[in-house]
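Exam revision sheet. Question 4 asks you to relate a sequence to its structure. Input first:
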Amino acid sequence: MAIVLPKFSRRRASPGLVVETQPAVNVTLCHEDGLYCAGGELTARWRISRVPLDEVQGVEISVLWHTEGKGDEDLHVHHFQRLAEQQLRRIGLADEQVVHCVLPKTPLSYHGRLISLQWCVRLRLYLANGRDIVAEQPFHLVSQDMARPHKFTSDRVSIGLTNSN
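Answer key, structure tokens:
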């Protein structure tokens, strides 16, 4: 689960002053271990709190991968959803929302010495004052050969890595 909170000053507010609260953005994956089979389904829940709806201009939710390390860094968006002000007013911010997509078969997550390929669910909150707040929840996309089902618990499937030794 990724919860993004802006940094707060350590100083206490003077009596009588109104303290401005900062928005909180939360993204939770349906698999606690963060492992997903290539070609399988991903469901993530997201929530925005501590911000009035009239201060929100839009929300973007995406499932993407990016590389880090030597050479050029790549980024590819697999799934994208944008909610504009009108849509947000209809659904509101009080309830947890869901994003769902079928994952591709490639590229698989990879963490090497020279390069890494990381998958994540990214939520970007656009505020009326021009600021944006981003939360990312990483996960691992693994081949079906590397994963095996564990057990089914209340709509959630846990996936574990098999030992190849």
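Marking note for examiners. The two ends are 31 Å apart (CA to CA).
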